[in-house]
Amino acid sequence: MTVTLEVACRYCLQTELVRKHGTGRAGFPRYYCQHCKRTFQYHYRYNAHKPGIKEKIVDMAMNGSGVRDSGRVLKISMNTVIRTLKNSHQDK
Ligand SMILES: [Zn+2]
Q: 53 and 40: one domain?
């Protein structure tokens, strides 16, 4: 049986090359991305700070989900959704 790490690299967001890399100072597991050759910690108190959430918010908006729907599905506040969407329009 193969154990798959459900951890995405916070820099390149892929999951296949992420390996465990011991434990951080605060006792949280650390991970190492063999693609980026960087280590990172995967402990986030709020969903909105997780890698990929921003992309999901934008995705949902593109697909016609309202701000309230996105917030409910992703378990983050409406304000966070609005702020993320505003920020994501910067490069357009
Ligand atoms: Zn990476």
A: no
76 or 44: which carries more pLDDT confidence?
Answer: 76
The whole domain housing 51 covers 47-91
pLDDT-derived band at 15, boundaries 50, 70, 90 = confident
Measured CA to CA in angstroms, residue 22 lies from 28, 31, 89 at distances of: 9, 7, 38
pLDDT interval class at 45 (50, 70, 90): low
Residue 55 CA to ligand 1 center (angstroms) comes to 16
- Which DSSP symbol is given to 32? E
Mark whether 61 and 36 lie in a shared domain.
no
Using the mean position of ligand 1's atoms as its centre, give its distance from the Cα of residue 73 in Å. Answer: 26
User: From ligand 1's centre to the CA of 69, what distance in Å?
Assistant: 30
